[in-house]
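User: I'm curious whether this sequence folds into something compact or stays loose and floppy. Could you predict its structure so I can see for myself?
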Amino acid sequence: MRTKSKVSLLLGGWKELCLPVLRALEPRLTLGALVVVDDIDQDSMAGYLAYVRDPANGYVSVAFSVEDGMEISFRA
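Assistant: Here's the prediction. I'll summarize afterward.
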């Protein structure tokens, strides 16, 4: 049986792609994986934030008030 290793993601760059990239990589994320994004204060991050903050999607997420904001999400 093959097991998945823990993966952590740092998503940066084009903010419009954060959610599509996360969704594409989700099958590889194990429980306990961390996903970190910055610049969450940008309007283009609204969809991403709504997704990771919705418990139905399998994340526990917290925002940090640093510069333009940072969100750290835990795959639960």
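Summary: The two ends are 22 Å apart (CA to CA). The longest strand covers residues 59-64.
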